[in-house]
DNA sequence: TATTGTTATACTCTATAACTATA
DNA sequence: TATAGTTATAGAGTATAACAATA
């Protein structure tokens, strides 16, 4: 997951004006968005490695976890919470259904909608993968103290929680 | 850029067991990766809005900025620094060339490579867009103090700088 | 008239294979 | 034999339009 330049130029040019050997990236490195994106990419890279045995991407784990923690959640609610467009959820839900992890039941008060529920197998897999994610979170932030980790999350929330002061 | 659920269910179900109205997302919200990704998406959203007049995406600004700050940088160095695969850089470089923002010159010591340089027009546009980005960075983090902003960047770097302790 | 879930489709982003010219 | 730059292309991710059933 290293993003460092791994092929520096061997022979520097004679005068030192052309062809830089070490790249000045200070401006981008001073931006919150740049650093947040790189941190997210780094953590997600580890996530994908450890989740490969379960056939889960980040979004799959997120969907299964939200269904497990919110029995009866609708597709529209998943869509809003995870910022996934409804058409792009259809395939994921169908795949989890065919894997026997979740099931649909009629919504009690809205016949257009359907409640989503984990099956016992889905419940087990969710608990297992949640433990994996908790462990990887711990590993990914092992250079941070518990206080620093809490501070980091709090500061990140301050950045993206602008209109929704909940 | 709000990611909050904007269509809560109107009538709660009779027994309160089915069809949750408020979604429990506490597990995902406790993960650094989740929060870093949302912060990055929020900042990038504002970035795209303000850069639209210039026809720049994040990657276009990054490329032009690195060339301006590192005259003679090669395509391969851009590729490594920004984690963009070489084939995906070709079109961007060509487009900036046809916009008259950058130019290629022979590399002084390696005839396979080409040094990239900003033109005067490219230099002007880089300075202008860099000022826009600096302003948006300030706006995006206006809920943070200067100390908090520096702390945030430092903590993010601790997360993604694992092997490259530069 | 608006919303849920869905199909079909387009667009963007990212990744892989293979080629040339040079090292 | 390896690297810089390039072409062509494949795949994943994300977005829009439109529809039937229901509110």
What is the name of the CATH superfamily of chain A? Winged helix-like DNA-binding domain superfamily/Winged helix DNA-binding domain
Query: What's the CATH C level of chain A?
Result: Mainly Alpha
Q: How much beta of chain A, percentage-wise?
A: 5-15%
Oligomer: homodimer
The largest sheet of chain A has its strands arranged as 1-2
CATH topology-level name of chain A: Arc Repressor Mutant, subunit A
Rg measurement of chain A, Å? 22 Å
Please tell me the overall pLDDT of chain A: 90
N/C terminus separation of chain A: 35 Å
> How would you characterize the largest beta sheet of chain A?
2 strands, antiparallel
Walk me through what this model shows.
The structure is a homodimer of 166-residue chains. A two-stranded antiparallel ribbon of chain A has the order 1-2. The first copy, chain A, is built from seven helices and two strands; from the N terminus they run H-H-H-H-H-E-E-H-H. By secondary structure, chain A is mostly helical. Chain A has one domain (26-160): Winged helix-like DNA-binding domain superfamily/Winged helix DNA-binding domain (Arc Repressor Mutant, subunit A, Orthogonal Bundle), CATH 1.10.10.10. The longest helix of chain A has 21 residues, at 120-140. In chain A, helix 2 (32-51) packs across helix 6, helix 3 (58-69) packs across helix 6 and helix 4 packs across helix 5. At the A-B interface, helix 1, helix 2, helix 3, helix 4 and helix 6 of A face helix 1, helix 2, helix 3, helix 4 and helix 6 of B.
């Amino acid at each position: 997951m290293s993003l460092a330049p791994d092929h520096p130029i061997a022979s520097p040019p004679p005068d030192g004006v052309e062809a830089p050997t070490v790249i000045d990236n200070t401006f981008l490195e001073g931006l919150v968005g740049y650093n947040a994106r790189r941190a997210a990419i780094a953590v997600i890279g580890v996530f994908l490695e450890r989740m490969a045995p379960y056939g889960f991407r980040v979004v799959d784990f997120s969907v299964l976890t939200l269904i497990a923690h919110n029995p009866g959640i609708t597709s529209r609610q998943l869509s809003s919470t995870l910022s996934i467009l409804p058409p792009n959820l259809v395939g994921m839900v169908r795949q989890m259904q065919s894997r026997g992890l979740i099931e649909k039941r009629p919504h009690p008060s809205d016949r257009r909608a359907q409640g989503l529920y984990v099956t016992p197998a889905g419940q087990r897999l969710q608990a297992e993968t949640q433990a994996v994610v908790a462990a990887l979170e711990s590993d990914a932030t092992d250079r941070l103290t518990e206080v620093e980790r809490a501070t980091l999350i709090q500061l990140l929330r301050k950045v993206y929680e602008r209109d929704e002061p909940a």
